[in-house]
Design goal:
single chain, alpha+beta, five-stranded antiparallel β-sheet, three-stranded antiparallel β-sheet, 7 helices, elongated
């Protein structure tokens, strides 16, 4: 992938010679234009291979977020543009005219640099999608087998919300969702799905819960694993379809290892 992207950059510049390159006359021009691809290759190897090996925790999949992806892609594009500017000066394609010249050059070359960024994002998201779809199929096979988690015999869940106290049967809770400073607790009462709103953080609620089948799957959700009917994989993680409700609850990438461990008990 890295070689293909770098090769595209070099061949594109050699064949089409944009940004005034067609007017530049230097010895071995075609070969030197291919050098832009080599500069791109070196930067991509550094950012996509070497740095993840040096800082594995930062680049670990479960810690990787969309925000990090966006920041890192912008860094990739900027480094490619700066690297190619210095290469241009060294090869006498463009004269050194200070930092203003660099900014102008970056403005011209960023559109080309965005190409590998878009390709990398697409390939990474496609890789995650395939992984999560494959693992969700295995989870669904376990989910629909006769073996089930036995409901734990525990005390009722008591929740204080301002001046009011609520009592829930944990096994009747389907899922919990955050809404601002409140939690919406979706639970069955007299065989009817109802929603009760309490003033509490999800973190505090998670600390109160003792049942292993009530699982925090996302920064905004807690779900009853016994209510999971279907698991669907996507690039961000999983989406859970729950029994007797149209709600779909996400499982973010950082919670996938723990989720899979819990679901293996089904």
């Amino acid at each position: 992938m890295i070689i293909a992207i770098s090769g595209f950059i070099g061949l594109f510049l050699m064949l089409f010679q944009p940004f005034g390159l067609q007017f530049v006359e230097v010895p071995y021009k075609s070969v030197k234009l291919l050098g832009y691809g080599c500069v791109t290759l070196a930067i991509l190897v550094l950012n996509l291979l070497l740095l993840p090996l040096m800082f594995p925790h930062y680049f670990e999949e479960k810690n990787w977020t969309v925000g990090k992806q966006i920041v890192w892609l912008n860094i990739d594009v900027l480094m490619i543009a700066v690297g190619n500017y210095f290469y241009s000066v060294e090869m006498h394609f463009f004269p050194w005219i200070g930092w203003e010249g660099m900014l102008i050059f970056i403005g011209f070359t960023v559109p080309i640099g965005l190409f590998p960024a878009v390709i990398i994002t697409f390939l990474q998201q496609n890789k995650l999608l395939r992984q999560h779809i494959k693992s969700s199929v295995a989870i669904n096979q376990q989910l629909h087998s006769p073996k089930k988690i036995e409901v734990e015999e525990v005390e009722l869940l008591e929740v204080e919300s301002g001046s009011q106290n609520y009592v829930f049967n944990p096994s009747e809770i389907v899922y919990i969702e955050t809404e601002g400073n409140y939690l919406n607790i979706y639970h069955f009462k007299d065989e009817v799905l109802k929603s009760t709103q309490v003033r509490m953080t999800l973190k505090k609620m998670n600390e109160l819960i003792e049942q292993t089948y009530l699982f925090k799957s996302h920064r905004a959700f807690i779900v009853n694993l016994n209510c999971v009917e279907q698991v669907d994989g996507n690039a961000q993680g999983y989406t859970l379809t729950l029994k007797n409700t149209t709600a779909r609850v996400p499982v973010s990438r950082s919670f996938i290892p723990a989720f899979k461990e819990k679901m293996e008990q089904l």
